[in-house]
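User: What would this chain look like folded?
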Amino acid sequence: MSAKCEVCGKGPAFGSSISRRGKAKYLGGVGRKVTGITKRRFRVNLQRVRVELPDGTRKRMRVCAQCLRSGKVKKRSKRVVPQAE
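Assistant: Here's the prediction, encoded as structure tokens.
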């Protein structure tokens, strides 16, 4: 199972982690020096949610938080159970 959003297809992005030493100039130092650059991965904030599809069926999907917030998917409504009197 890949780390991708099933709605928008967003996957992990790549970047760099920069290690620095020294004191910043505005704090009275001689400036910050880069001591190392390593690759890193920005992972997607995936949530496993039960989604109600447009045709009325319900399915469990892995959706990114951005799609949930923007309303691209409709969360499943709770089933109403009739109460016995």
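The CA atoms of residues 23 and 41 lie 27 Å apart. If you want, I can go into more detail on any region.
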